[in-house]
Specification:
mainly alpha, Growth Hormone, Chain: A, 3 domains, globular, disordered C terminus, transmembrane
Amino acid sequence: MSLLLVALDSTVLHVAVPSLTEDLRPGPIELLWIVDAYPLAAASLLILFGTLGDRVGRRRVLLLGYALFAAASGLAALATSPAVLIAARALLGVGGAMIMPATLSVLRQVFPDRKERAVAIGVWSAVAAVGAAVGPVLGGFLLEHFWWGSVFLVNIPLMAVIWPVARLLLPESTGDRDGPWDLLGAGLAALGILGVILGVKRLGGGDGFTDPAALTALAAGVVLLWLFVRRQRRLRHPLIDMSMFGRAAFGTSVGCIVLAMLALVGLELVAVQYLQLVLHLSPVAAGLRLLPLTFAAMAAGLTGSRILHRVGPRAMVCGGFVLTACAVLALTAMGATDRPWLLTGGFVLLGFGLETTLFGAYESMLSEAPPDRAGGAAAIGETSYQLGAGMGIALLGSVMNAAYEPGVRRVPGVPEYAADQATHSLGEAYDVAGRLGGPAGQTLRAAARSAFVHGLHVTLAVSAGLLLIGALAALCLPRGMDTARAAAARDAVHG
């Protein structure tokens, strides 16, 4: 339930942006930070809180995360200015960073048997998929009946139920407490990840790969992460055991998570725009169109353990990538007219294939980590997820823009200044067309719509290519699952 709320909160704001913009009147930069404060804070602090849980207790960090998440939700719901809402969203991100790795690392302790743990990870991943997809639908329902703050306020009663249940039922667990906790290393990791994710997010918009602020943030983040890795290799008691990346299953699993999210999130962003701006569906209707993806992902999560035991990690992750690539290629048949059966079938294959990939990758990664490093390993997995998502928006967003722009740059009968403005996005092209009016406006609108569909097809093709690269990378994973005896021997060596 806690993971459901965190995943839900990462997407529920999307449909509330128009309402809160009308109420709080944020500027363009403030609006950007309202949206980005949560994922930036969460992603940059995952390693810090994941490794802190290994030291002071995973349940303790989880309970503190619950309390902070509830308090920040109340602050966000009652915010009367953009600055307060930005601060509340950042605090929600801090709470989310405490909750996410703790939920996964607790599974490593509560389910030491790999078969049982695989079932638990299946439920965990299915819940995450449900939360992310239900967010826009729930947000749309709440906005139809209440004010925009209700999308945050709903968290409080649910957290009030979860906190005492978790305190009563979850056992406390810690990892290796030898040596001091590396506070400097935690700071380097947090700032480095913040720089990288902020950089790749900015690369996906504005001036793209010529944006000096984006390149500076990205370069600074890379340098800080290099310093972090160098420091961890030298410490006797590091935050992150870098030797884990030397194991093929662990390093490959992390790479597969990045590639899967890189291909999916940028594609999902484009798909939502297609549903709303090309097919003219409402936000709620667009969210409902994506529900088949959610149900398929749930099915993959709940059956993942059985698939994993039957075919092994290599075939599962590789097959998931191939199935997802086939779904993406099938969706290239989308055009300017609605084809609901094509969309439904494509989204079902996409959801099942992607969740199969992520299930196998997360299970392999977590099983390769020693029990006393479970929090750090879970944080690495969640950070990879966030990093892949940010890179996907930057890369596939840039591909989409590059393919879309030529189609509206020179449209017969449309003034050059209007065409210039229309190159920024399909939504802006519609606004410009509305202001122009007459035949010129209709021509620009049709050209922009056609250019967007062309850009969508190019983006889908690039996404499919990335997924096939992921399938090749997955061939480095083990063919079968370790036996309990082999896993215990490995844990004894590395514990």
